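Recall that a protein's primary structure is simply its ordered list of amino acids. Everything else, from secondary elements to tertiary packing, is in principle encoded there. The following example makes that idea concrete.
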Amino acid sequence: MSEINSDAVGERIRQSFARQGAMRTLGAELTSVSKGVVEIEMPFDEKLTQQHGILHAGVISAALDAACTYSAYTMIAPDVSLLTIEFKVNLMSPGKGERFLFRGEITKPGSTIVVADGRGYAIGDGPAKLIASMTSTMMAVRGREGISG
């Protein structure tokens, strides 16, 4: 793999994240980008809850998927895109908090398949509470029309 300029990588990820209608709908913000690790935060919003008033599992999964995928983008060449091909989510605690933090971190980089792990945290008046974990697998996509960074 060729050397990757971290400033250029961060900007590419920020531009890509800005095009994500789903993350915009969730009110999610890209808050940290470093090699192999990306963090996304979002405020609590009642519109994103399930019937018990806690953050919906689908919302948690979507945010963790984005965090894991963008963590993989920090490790690949600029001409490569990624698509999630599999993930597993463990919901560990109710999604109750004022804000939520979703962190994706590379477990196994690769030129074709990348594996990342994610953790979701509820942030409130006490210490951050782990609410979910994800293991995600992405495949590299090269030269496919309509799919780019």
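The beta strands are 29-34, 37-43, 81-91, 99-108, 113-123, 129-141. The two ends are 17 Å apart (CA to CA).
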